[in-house]
Amino acid sequence: MYTTLTVWATAMTLAAATPLRFESRQTKSTPFLQNTVAWDAGAVSIYPIHSSCNSTQAAQINAGLNETILLAEHAKDHVLRWGNSSELYQKYFGKLPPYEIIGAYDQIVSGDKGSVLFRCDNPDNNCRLEGKTTRRCAIQD
């Protein structure tokens, strides 16, 4: 009877202590989670178009960018499916490993677009160079 009482008392003590121990672990704050920021905080998901573009220019640039993203998604999916064994891949990229190509396409599709700015006001005067037309550079004189 003494052994049964000891086992029962030990079991009750452990049972009573266990939830408190787990509860205290769960309610403790973890220092590395207190001041976290979302990993993509500040990322830009669409290519910015400068206010120097009028509404027609902005619409044309936006349409071209949307088509570029669609083509890049398709090209990335093609490489993911076929790797570097397809004729199209070999035509444009030779025997390069597919990982670099997939990464380049993924940067266009999913990368942070904040470091790119499409402008229509020719800030660097490159559209005034010989051989460049204002129409090609989307500048209105």
Short description:
This protein is mainly alpha-helical and 141 residues long. The chain is built from 5 helices and no strands.
Task: Explain what you see.
This protein has 141 residues and is an all-alpha fold. The chain is built from five helices and no strands. The protein has helices at residues 2-27, 31-34, 55-82, 87-93, 98-110. Helix 3 runs antiparallel to helix 5. It is extended.
Topology, element by element:
Blueprint: H1 2-27, H2 31-34, H3 55-82, H4 87-93, H5 98-110
Helix pairs in contact: 3-5
The proportion of residues forming helix, as a percent range, comes to: 55-70%
What proportion of the residues form beta strands (DSSP E)? under 5%
Sequence of secondary-structure elements:
HHHHH
Helix count equals: 5
Unreliable residue stretches: none
| Termini separation | 104 Å
- Based on DSSP secondary structure assignment, what is the total number of beta strands? 0
User: Major sheet, described briefly?
Assistant: none
Q: Rg from C-alpha positions?
A: 30 Å
What would you call the shape? Answer: extended
Average pLDDT confidence is: 79
Class computed from helices, strands and strand pairing: mainly alpha
